[in-house]
Amino acid sequence: MADTPTTSLRARNQVLASNQNVWGDPYINTNNSIFDAGVTRIATLTCTGATYTLSATDYDSNAEAIAAGLLVTGALGSGLTIVAPARRKITLLRNDATGGQTTTWGVSGGVAVTIPQTGRFFAYTDGTDAFQVTPTYTTSGRIVGLTDPSAAQDAATKAYVDAATGGTGFTGSGAVVRQEHPIIDDATFSGTINQTGTFSGGAYRGPTIITGTLSGSTTAGTVNLLTIQTLSGTLGVFGGKTLRSNQTITFSGGDGAEFDIAASKTVIINNSLSLQGTDGTNFIYPTTSGRLMTLDQRSQSFSGGVTIISYSGGTFTGNAGGGNVVNPGNGPLQYFGNAGAHQVIAPAADGSCVVLYTNLSTAGAYTFSGFTVGSSVGDATTTTSGNKFKFYIDRVAGISSYTVQALQ
Question: Where are the domains of the chain?
Answer without folding.
Answer: 4-144, 171-236+245-256, 311-406
